[in-house]
Amino acid sequence: MDISSLLRFLLRRIIKSVLVVIAIVICNFLLIHAAPGDPATVMAGQSGSADPQFMAQLRHQFGLDLPLYEQLWIYLKGVLTLDLGFSHRMQVSVASLLLDRLPATLLLTGTSFVIAIVGGVTLGALAARRVGHWSDSAITVVALAFYATPLFWVGLMLVLLFSVKLEWLPSFGMSDPGSNLHGIALAWDICQHLVLPSLTLGLFYLAVYARLTRATMLEVLSQDFVKTARAKGVPESRVISVHVLRNALLPVITFAGIQAGQLIGGSILVETVFAWPGIGRLAFEALLARDYQVLMGVFFCTSVVVVIFNLLTDLLYAVVDPRVEVST
Amino acid sequence: MNFARRFCRHPGAVIGLVVLILVIAMALLAPILFPGSPWDMAGAPFEPPGEDGMLLGTDSLGRDVAAGIAYGARVSLLVGAVSTVVSLFIGVALGAIAGYLGGLVDDLVMRFTEFFQTIPSFVLAILLVAIFTPSISSIIAAIAVVSWPPVARVVRAEFMSLRSREFVQAAQVLGKRPLGIVLTDILPNALSPIIVLASLMTASAILLESSLSFLGLGDPNLMSWGFLIGSGRSVIRLAWWMSVFPGLAIFATVLALNLVGEGLSDALNPRLRKRGAKP
Amino acid sequence: MSLLSVENLTIGLPSGGDRANAIENVTLQINPGEIVCVVGESGSGKSMTANATMGLLPPGLPVRSGRIMFEGIDLLTQSPEQLRRLRGARLAMIFQEPMTALNPLMRVGDQISEALRMHGDTSAATRVPELLAAVNLPDPKNLARAYPFRLSGGQRQRVMIAMALALEPSLLIADEPTTALDVTTQMQILRLIREIQTRRHTGVLFITHDFGVVAEIADRVAVMQHGRIVETGTAAEVLNNPQHPYTQALIAAVPRGIARATGPTQPGEPVLRMKGVVKTYRRGGGLFAKGTSFQAVHDADFVLHRGETLGIVGESGSGKSTLARCVVGLVTPERGEIKFNGSELRALSATAWKPFRRHIQMVFQDPYASLNPRRSVGDAIAEGPILHGTSRAKALDRARDLLRLVQLDAGAMDRFPHEFSGGQRQRIGLARALAMEPELLIADEPVSALDVSVQAQVLGLLADIRKRLGLTMLFITHDLRVAAEICDRVAVMQRGAIVEQGETGSVFNAPNHTYTQALLDSIPGRHWTPPESA
User: Which of C166, C193, C216 is the last residue before a domain boundary?
Assistant: First the structure.
């Protein structure tokens, strides 16, 4: 696809993404108003409801006696200026809380995603190459097993095994509290803390990608152009790596985009188990305290991350598959 | 019967079915196996498994873990089944409308479905349950609301492919009404993927439910597997059995459902076209 | 020395198949510079020998005995790496489905240069445009940079040929390369293969099911049935003096392409009148982009008289199927008149259509998709009458009668479609259409998906029923030979318009339009007159 049509495609997708984000904000708004009880109470959360001054401030801020669409407009304006509310419990703005915790989550989910994709595609491709062989059955069974276990339980079991029994790896937090580490030492410490949580989150999705890759590769292997390549005298290794893999990866790219939302959702569970200081853990704490503004901020933030990720996967797909330009 | 034979060709599927039946049996027989409420104290706190007649140990308040698992099975199975049914309803309806009518309606429904698939479903589920206060009905509703998009996609794809199939056109030429065509020609042929999907969705519904109750969003009156694991999290060094056994129960049930789903998928496959595949 | 010599080759099938061996004791020879055609219907094993020669047999099919001698080497004893080096360089193969035979993610030129590179030839930059030009593709330099989806079926097949011949192999195996192509494109490709073969003295193993193609290009012929070769010989011998009963039956089943005037000499009153019908399709477009539109049907006026059979002949994209669907109301044209016995059909609502359904019915093309797999045969046939008020018992009785009429056993009533063969399913489809006792029957390529021998039977059945019930028929087909068998008059369609129509005999012997002439010239084996069957 040439540059100009790529740019046009990008523009169309960005417009679509912006519309999606606006729709999410409206969704948030509707949720507040659909909840039982007074929207102000909902927004204030448990600790805020007790503070009459805070409540009055909230009522004023959201204009709760104005007609609904005006309230929506106020809310939209607020979000678009990145004013996501104020957490009474933590006494800071929601936006600053999110910004503070986002990097840790991105580190965790990013690492997990890489583990999942690299491991999953490799194992799936291996299984497809040796279909029927015992290694294929082994991979399929292991993938199935990981697919069936709840994330939080895998996390706990890993903690049990590696932290409690074997004492190889730390089980909580992102780095050792109290120790004043800098530079390389800090990075190494974070890495050690990163191993178990990213494995937990990554293994589940590794299973998903392994199964998917195996299925798509088997399907591509049965297509005519693979036979053509062999008939030309192309060595089998190249048939797989050049002809089959690229075609088989197309559905994997699409699927990665769809799975992004679930990956981020999973980080809530993993961060809770490992006390990882990210957005997920923030959501858990907010949940306990019924701090709805923070919760909705988390929803908004994670949705935006997913939308951006989807944009990137769509772009990647368009670059890899030359047919996309024609259909849009 | 061909179907049963094809299903039984998969050892995994048969094992899955057996395990599933066992879990259902355990759920149904819970009041008989463990009379009383699982919330009752049954022994001393933190008793390791095997001691004092407690097969799987007791928790921090002396409750029997085995009883908790048996009663938890009821919650998980109930939530899994009902939320799947509701999800299927929504998904089949939307997918059928989009697939059969096509055009603008299809566009709108697909945009709506894509939107729901983009937003992080677990976060939305948490939000919904938290806002509408946790109870078994809010949990079921939340799970159903976030789970229907894959169903709609599959049903839409099936309907679109079937709608242009020649036997549907033949029915139109015979003078059949659209609703009649949908109900008697298209739907019966679209059932197979829906049934397979139902099995897989029940599995993910159970995972979702246990995740929600692990985070403390379960129905406070009902003992569930996720809740057991959640309460065992902080004392994992003291009492590993509180976390391990309920997790195994989830694992076994979800795995069984997935295996059954795969067996169904193969058994229900439309008969392969015997066009005398060129030998 | 022969180029390829297959000696007593037997390849087994996994247990549970139709027979024990896919092919048995197959012996075949190809000399340099000759074209040998292997003819058979589906299931005959004709592709199997080709796949075995190339070393591309699917796993699970053991070679039980025999040798394949190619240029003095036994291919069956070669290691995979040795075979790989031969493939593409000394022997090459092209396949049937051009739409799926090329990697959709790779440029066409890159796929050809890959073939060169894999065998150590680094002259790709100059060779690729040469090769593309040699297969008569326009603008070779730019075409090499195109992706497959931009090319038509015929163009893709030419690319395949260019790729196969890149390294100048001594043997080319062609597995039904023209079956999926339009008639005119088929003739072009056949001529191309012939030309290249003469120029380079390549040996060609050409697999086909169509005796017309055999007549067009073969030097020698081998006929296969149920995995065995039943007859071999030079083309002249086998085509004009077939010995084996199966060969004789196959040749007898080939539609002649000679017009038979069978219709009523007095045309009855007009039953169907199409005037000024226009159907436009919009492709692409969505919420943000504008699509393109094209007219599938525009200038296609004709009149169909009672008791006659009008053939609508055209290649893919000619609009013939759309035209048929306009008549039955599956598709609504924007403009024009469709008059059935005087009543206007074009803009009728679904309810207004109901009374006409009794009178106009349709038989479809794909026997594997035209019957509801979950409905028993009896129910499928009886469904129509029941919808229109007949009692269930009476409708089922009628279904039994119809099954007899289409020469199927009445026991078929309770069986399901998957238990029947393609030809049998078409008969069931015909019975279903006839259940409504229609005046007008529209047959949309009813025999295109069937094997040649079955084709002849179903055509014979149609002709017979037409005469018995006095049906008026609109027969859609892409095959002029089939049209000649059964149609009184013929209308030729090209790009949505009828370019010529008239009595079959006059259109065939003295065509007016250049396109009709081109179609007639593209009938493979036109110069061959099959012997009259004993």
Answer: C166
